[in-house]
Every structure is written in C-alpha cells, then in structure tokens.
Amino acid sequence: MPARSLSLHHVVKRYDNLQPAVDGVSLQIEPGEFVSFLGPSGSGKTTTLMMIAGFQQPTSGDIHLAGRTIDKMPAHARNIGVVFQNYALFPHMSVADNVGFPLRMRGLGKAEKHRKVGAALEMVGLGALAARKPAQLSGGQQQRVALARALVFEPDLILLDEPLGALDKNMREHMQVELKRIHRELGVTMVYVTHDQTEAMTMSDRIAVFNQGRIEQIAAPQDMYLRPATRFVASFIGDNNLISATALGAGRYSVAELGPLQACDLALADGSPVDLLLRPEMIRLAGDQPPCATLRIDSAVNYGDSVLAIGRVGATPLRVRIPGPQARDLRAGQEVPLHWHASDIHVIPAARA
Amino acid sequence: MNETSSLQGADGVPRPGGTTAAAGLLRALLKGPLPLYLPAALFLLAFFIVPLGYVVVMSLTEPRPGLGNFTALLGSRHFLMVLLQTLQTAALVTVCALLLGYPLAYVAAGPARRLGGVLLGVIALSFWTSFLVRTYAWMVIFGRQGPLSHWLASLGWRPPPSLLFTSTGATVAMTHAMVPFMVMAVYAVMKRIDERYVRAAQSLGAHPLRAFALVYLPLSLPGVVNGCTLVFITTLGFYVMPVLLGSPNQQMISGVIGDQIEQVLDFGAASAMSVILLLVVLALFWLYHRFVGLDRLWSR
C-alpha cells in the first residue's frame, strides 16, 4: 500500500464566535507513520480528524496529503479510509457488501472486487463471515470489518476515531496488537484518535497531545513520558508527582516546605517558577543510600506486582510506586526514607500565564 | 396473586376437549396485570367490539338473513367501481403525501436544528387545527370566487377552473391532511439514522447523492412503509373531506355508506359495505404484518 505524508498548517476551526474548537494546529506526519491524537474530550482532536477526512471545513489553514492540498476536496474524493467510533457498518448490507462498498464506488469488476474483499477479510481474520449481517457479529468482529472496509481500497491514509472505545478491556488489548500488525504489514499512514493514554503509548510512533484546541506536544511515547513539555502533558500521561518549585540556579530548585532539590539545569533565570515532575516509579526506598526525603504514608494500595504508597513529604503530597518484594511491609502511618537520582526529576518551566 | 396461582396449579389437570383451551385463555387473561388493561378493555368492548359485531350481524340479517347483501354488492358494478375508486384515491394520496412528506422529514431530521424545529412546528400546527376547519378552509380556497381561481385567472386561465366538488380537490385536501402523519412516521425513523453511516459512505468514495441512495434511503425505508400503511389505511375510511369537497359522482366508499344510511335507510347494504371495507383493511394489515411486522407500526 502506498505510504503518504500528511501535513496541517495553522488549521483553525471556529463555530460561531466562541472559543475555537481547533486553534491553530500544525503538524507533519511522515509516510507510514502511526500517529495518535491524544487528549480529553473537547480538546479538538476529533474535530481535527473530521477536517482531515473532509466532513468539516477548516475556518482557516490548510491540509496537505501527499503534497497536494485537499481542503477544497469533498470527502468522497479524498481517498482516505475512516474507521468510526461505532464502526458505522451499513446494517442493511452483508459483511462482504460492506467491505466491497468502496470498490463498488470505484467501479471495480466483480472478480477483482471479490478477490480484494476476500483478501481484506482474510487480513482481519474474518474470511468465514462474509455472508453475515453486521448485527450478527460481536463488537470485536464489527471492528475488524470496519477496518477491512477502510483499508480494502488502498487509501492514502487511514483515520481511526476511538475505534476501540466500545470494546471490553481484553478485546481492546487484543485489537491493539492486531492494529499494529496490520499497520506493520501494510505500511500505511495511520492517524488514531483516542483519549486512552495507554492505547496511545503502546501503539504510536508519535503522540500529539491535544488540549483546548491546540497541540501541547508531539513526540515519541517514551520522550513524551520522560520529558513532557508542559504540566498538562505530564499530568495527562502516566501517574505523576508534579511539584511546584522555584529555580535557584545551577540546577537547584526550592520547593516550599521541602527545601532545595537538585535536578538538571535548564539555565532558567533565578526565581523562575517551575514544575518538577518525579514519576512515582522513579522513587525507591532509600535502603543504604542517603535518603532524599522521608515519606509519611497515608495509604498503601497493593496492586500485587507493586504497591502505591500515597503520603506526604512535609506538606507536599507524594505518590511512590514500589515494586512488590520490597513493598510488602508498607503500611499507612509508617515513615520511610526515600531516594531518587537528580536526573530522574524532569523540570518543566511553568506556563507563561 | 399467590392465591390465584396456587389455585391454577391445583386444577392444572388436563381435561377433555375445548375446555382446556378456554381455561388456558381465561388463565392467561387473569394472570396478566388485569387491573391495568381492564378499563380500556371494557371501554373497547362496549363501544367498539359490540357495535362492530352489531354491524356484522346487520349485514347478514337485514332485511333478511343470508349473504344476500354481499352477493348483491359484489355483483354491483357501481359498488365495485366505488371500491376501486376508493383504493385508487387512497393510493394517490399516499404517493402524494410521501413525495411531499419525505423531503420535509429529511430536512427536519437533518443537521439544521432550527430549521428542523420550525418545519416540525408548522406541521404540528396544521395537525392540531381541527379537521373540519381545514376542510372549510379548502372550500374557501377552491371556491369559484376563491384565491386559487383568482390566481389562475390572473395567469390567463379563463374561465378559471374550480376545484371545489372535484375528486382532484378532495385528493389535494386529503393529502394535506395526511402529510403530517407521513412526516411523523418517516421522521421517527430518520432521526435514528446515525449521520456516521452517510459519512462512512462518503469516506469510502460515494458521492453524496449515491451515499443517499445506497445508504440513507434504504435505512429510512421502514419509516416509508410505516407512513404509507398509516396514510393508505386512514385515507380508505375518509368521510368528511371527500363528502364536503369531492365530486358527488366519484364518491369514496365512506360517502356511499353514509348515503345508504341517511338517504336510502338501507342498513343491511351499508353494514355489508362497512364489513367489506373492514375486510380490505384487515387484508392490508395482514400483508403488512406478514412482511414488516405489525408491532413495528407503533413501537420504536
């Protein structure tokens, strides 16, 4: 399948004269990339997707697919496969007719259509169900049919709008693996909208985090997890401790009631407000190392493989995740010495208000 | 409740012949939430089932017992013409109501919420206006000195035709009366069609017109069938409009039944006609039930 690039330049979508739904989104997606749009509902990610698909018109800005501008092109001429949230399989058509629909629209011959539909259904593992009606399929099977229908016509791009949202947890994890396999095998460019950070983390080449109509950050999952650009991204992805602090210079930061902390030096002006991100799993029990702080545990939640200790260092709330064996004896009310490396603290310059 | 069921359990012994079926029916009737449907059932029994039975009895006994009324009617060219005319008119009204109502319902169910609201409001307004008032309004509009005549005359049509007392006039008025029913039936189904179906069709390469024809139209068909059945069967029994607006020479069956009672005093023939009309309607309902399912006419 051909892999195409997609780029958006300062795309704005405004309804009436309210706060714009999409407020100047720019991004460049490479051919064959799997990019997730991650964000809370109302953050503009689905609106952006609908503009790429051609169901909504940008108020300003433009969209390029494989180098050509497509914003004036009607949806049916764009050659983009879309998988909708509730699949939108045509209920009055069989599975084969659903998957064959885009080929019928392109005037393919009967034999070729039959062959391609068969191959697409084979790809999603549903070859035996071609004659069924969508209502006779389980949610996971409907999802696969929707996927087969969106890729059978070799689109330049596949858009997926929270496609796994309606599935139960096991099915969802299974489909994530399937989707990645199909993406690998076809090499097609995919844009995936989700509000589930785990989904975005496990599947994407890159994630674009949306908030209030803007992209807060676009980066590879690991980068985004370790080095979030904003407080919003840090709090949206992964469990976290976000501690307000003030830069003291030379990589030292002062935290109210906790004293100075050492972290990497961002060469910020003295007195600049910052947020310090310390992931709960980066913190260890001090053992024989010098303790960085002492945690007073308010509650300990046992997950089996680990224990999440929630408590305070001074007045600063802190969450600490300790792997199973070391954590068995942690109880509420205990005071435990903690240790972390200065390099585990990620410094986020506080938002210019 | 417990008492009744234990009583029934005690005499659950099979008995010979029809008693078992009758007892079963009685048991089923008593078992349900009887107090809930009893008032309605009694009302229907007193004011619908009994009079209807009386009509059936009259058709078979007046003026003398036998099938005489029916053989006479089915042998009468005039009556068969009236029946055919009635079916034709009902079919025409149905088609016209569909042609007018479908696009209306489509827009009302569409994304333009305000426009949709206004359209539904206008339809409801005409629906709530008394039937008789609407009929007289059409009499004024169609009258020899009415606005329609003036308008046609100003276009150069002389002498302008009068639609009053013609079957065309009656058909127009009945269509007007039936459009709200059609719109409601179609709208109810259209409102449940997810816009994503049409979007999906377009994203798969279907021009908007093709997406409509291949996806939206088939999905709206249940509403069309509902609306057509409702309009067709209702129109079959129309009385006021065809009598007051229509041509005396091309009456619909209700008008003829009325004449038989009011002018000829032939209750036997009138009853037999009613029974035949009823049988036609039942036959249509049966067909509908066979192919679509009666419960879907009202539910969902």
From TrEMBL, chain A:
This is ABC transporter ATP-binding protein. Signal peptide: none annotated. One of its GO terms (molecular function) is ATP binding. It comes from the Bacteria. Keywords: ATP-binding, Nucleotide-binding, Transport. PANTHER family: SPERMIDINE/PUTRESCINE IMPORT ATP-BINDING PROTEIN POTA, SPERMIDINE_PUTRESCINE IMPORT ATP-BINDING PROTEIN POTA. Residues 6-237 form the ABC transporter domain. Gene3D superfamilies: 2.40.50.100, P-loop containing nucleotide triphosphate hydrolases (3.40.50.300). It comes from Pseudomonas typographi.
UniProtKB/TrEMBL annotation, chain B:
It is a multi-pass membrane protein. PROSITE patterns: ABC_TM1 (PS50928). The keyword Zinc does not apply. It is found in: Cell membrane. CDD domains: TM_PBP2 (cd06261). The keyword Transmembrane helix applies. InterPro entries: MetI-like, MetI-like_sf. The chain crosses the membrane at residues 36-60, 80-105, 117-143, 163-190, 211-240, 267-288. Residues 83-288 form the ABC transmembrane type-1 domain. Keywords: Cell membrane, Membrane, Transmembrane, Transmembrane helix, Transport. Its main location: membrane. Belongs to the binding-protein-dependent transport system permease family. CysTW subfamily. This is ABC transporter permease.
